[in-house]
Specification:
Strand 2 and strand 3 form a beta hairpin. The protein is α+β, with helices and mostly antiparallel strands and 140 residues long. It starts with a helix and ends in a 7-residue tail after the last strand. The strands form two sheets. The protein has a three-stranded antiparallel β-sheet, covered by helices on one side. Strands 4-5 form a two-stranded antiparallel ribbon. The protein folds into two domains: 52 residues, no CATH class; 69 residues, no CATH class. 31% of the residues lie in helices and 18% in strands. Helix 3 packs across helix 5.
Length: 140
């Protein structure tokens, strides 16, 4: 551990490390705190997830990981993407974007493209009934 991380631990701040460089499914939280009796208590807590993105991860890496969820949505499954992180760390920007198309807009494009490509199968993507087969729409 570098001296800055050692100083943060000494100051009682938590240090997050990403030891799983292959599958990216684990983070480890290291904390050192003073007990009520004046002693030092060191804690190392590993946490496992389906996927962990490090701070230097790109928008494309995140999208590549979640793009298959668009197909799950098309297949009729409920889909939830949970973004967790510190305030101001970029969760909303990663999912919704600013002037660039990122995760949610790109997934929406995938879903609409799927139905648009299948217009001959009874799907109408031209208006209010986007993605609903014409034989399953409510009567007008």
């Amino acid at each position: 551990m570098d001296t800055a991380a050692e100083k943060d631990i000494a100051d009682g701040l938590a240090i997050i490390s990403f030891p799983d460089k292959q599958e990216h499914k684990e983070i480890v939280l290291s904390v050192s705190s003073e007990s009520a009796m004046g002693g030092t208590r060191d804690s190392v807590m590993p946490f496992n997830f389906d996927r962990v993105f490090e701070p230097q991860s790109t928008q494309n890496e995140v999208f590549e990981e979640i793009s298959h969820l668009a197909q799950s949505c098309i297949d009729g499954y409920n889909v939830c993407i949970f973004a967790y992180g510190q305030t101001g760390s970029g969760k909303s920007f990663t999912m919704e974007g600013g002037n660039v198309r990122v995760c949610l807009p790109r997934c929406s494009i995938l879903i609409l493209q799927f139905y648009s490509d299948r217009g001959d199968k009874g799907y109408d993507t031209s208006g209010r009934t986007q993605g609903i087969p014409s034989n399953r729409r409510a009567p007008q």
